[in-house]
């Protein structure tokens, strides 16, 4: 796969089959063969745009002529999802054929333990989001609190309504940003967060054998919640993540999230932010060494983005932190 720390969008264009094959293999990390017997090689043209979003390799692929691609079994490496943006695709594997037509409201899965062939019609274009298998496994096992087997998905499923719609909305957002870049994906932090959001949303909204278990809130007593609450109050400026708090609690993440919400009435993220805001509020209203700035107080309590801190503070206390400090 492409460099997982990349983030910026890249465009590749080729009119040569061998060159295209090499570029596709370099991007995906496995051989993707353009079949010269079945493809319109004389009129071959390929344009690929791609970006690496944390654990997700995202790309669009357009062909100016009929192209047939042969790919290996992918499930040990990636879980790919794709949909036609223009023209038609037909993916075949032993025992299954999966058509994809632009505007059909469906998302296809190429996660298979068998090799597969994709027939790309003339002037076809599609996007593909490829989730690293290792990242998917780690995320899901942490949420569930136990080991998992390889995920199985339908060869395609509807995304215009129902549970999978938020996933498709995120895919559409990234696709539009890759096709007409605004620079959003050139920011590594933004690219990584989008990748994390795609991964979590994929796990929670697509049909697979663990979907029902993910949707069922775990049950636990108050002790793990109190352990996490104490950790937050002991060091509220620490950059806690949900995964870290789950490890502190000793229970699966989804169980902790449900129990924490039931105990405190707010999510862990909101609770942590409120604790930080209360500390900053106290410091802004108290005597501080000469020259202490609002930014310094915000950073002391774990707020790294001053403008975001100002919005949160105003929403909670009715004034901007600069106004609070000026009134002392």
List the keywords.
alpha+beta; 3 domains; 328 residues; seven-stranded antiparallel beta sheet; 12 strands; Arc Repressor Mutant, subunit A; five-stranded antiparallel beta sheet; Jelly Rolls
CA distance, first residue to last residue: 55 Å
Query: How many domains make up the coordinates?
Result: 3
What's the tally of helices?
12
CA radius of gyration: 24 Å
The SSE string, one letter per element, is EHEEEEEEEEEEHEHHHHHHHHHH
SS class:
alpha+beta
Report helical residue fraction.
Answer: 40-55%
Low-confidence region ranges: none
The CATH superfamily of the largest domain bears the name Jelly Rolls
The CATH architecture category of the largest domain equals Sandwich
Structure description:
- The chain is α+β, with helices and mostly antiparallel strands.
- The chain has 3 domains: 10-211, Sandwich (Jelly Rolls); 217-265; 271-326, Arc Repressor Mutant, subunit A.
- The chain has helices at 17-28, 133-144, 165-179, 188-205, 211-215, 223-234, 242-249, 253-264, 268-284, 294-300, 306-317, 321-326, and strands spanning 10-14, 33-34, 46-53, 56-63, 67-71, 78-86, 88-93, 96-101, 106-109, 116-120, 124-132, 156-158.
- Helix 3 runs antiparallel to helix 4 and helix 6 packs across helix 7 (242-249).
- The longest helix has 18 residues, at 188-205.
- It is elongated.
- 33% of the residues are buried.
- The model has no long low-confidence stretch (mean pLDDT 90).
Question: Concise description?
Answer:
This protein is of the alpha+beta class.
């Amino acid at each position: 796969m492409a460099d997982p720390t990349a983030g910026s969008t890249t465009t590749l264009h080729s009119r040569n089959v061998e060159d295209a094959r090499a570029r596709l293999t370099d991007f995906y990390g496995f051989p993707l063969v353009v079949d010269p017997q079945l493809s319109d090689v004389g009129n071959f043209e390929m344009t690929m745009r791609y970006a690496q979003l944390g654990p997700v390799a995202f790309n669009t692929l357009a062909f100016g002529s009929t192209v047939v691609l042969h790919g290996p079994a992918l499930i040990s490496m990636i879980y790919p999802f794709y949909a036609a943006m223009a023209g038609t695709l037909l993916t075949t594997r032993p025992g299954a054929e999966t058509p994809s037509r632009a505007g059909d409201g469906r998302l296809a899965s190429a996660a298979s333990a068998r090799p597969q062939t994709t027939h790309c019609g003339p002037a076809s274009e599609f996007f593909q989001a490829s989730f690293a298998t290792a990242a998917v496994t780690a995320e899901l096992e942490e949420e569930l609190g136990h080991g998992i087997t390889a995920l199985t998905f339908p060869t395609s499923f509807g995304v215009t309504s129902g549970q999978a719609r938020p996933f498709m909305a995120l895919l559409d957002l990234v696709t539009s940003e890759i096709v007409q870049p605004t620079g959003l994906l050139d920011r590594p932090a933004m690219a990584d967060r989008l990748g994390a959001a795609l991964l979590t949303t994929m796990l929670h909204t697509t049909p697979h054998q663990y979907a029902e278990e993910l949707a069922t809130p775990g049950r636990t007593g108050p002790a793990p919640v109190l352990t996490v609450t104490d950790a937050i109050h002991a060091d509220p400026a620490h950059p806690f993540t949900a995964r870290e708090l789950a490890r502190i609690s000793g229970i699966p993440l989804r169980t902790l999230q449900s129990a924490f919400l039931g105990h405190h009435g707010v999510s862990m993220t909101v609770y942590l932010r409120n604790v930080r805001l209360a500390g900053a509020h106290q410091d802004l209203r108290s005597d501080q060494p000469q020259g202490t700035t609002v930014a310094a107080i915000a950073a002391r309590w774990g707020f790294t983005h001053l403008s975001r801190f100002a919005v949160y503070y105003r929403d909670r206390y009715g004034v901007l932190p600069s106004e609070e400090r000026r009134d002392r």
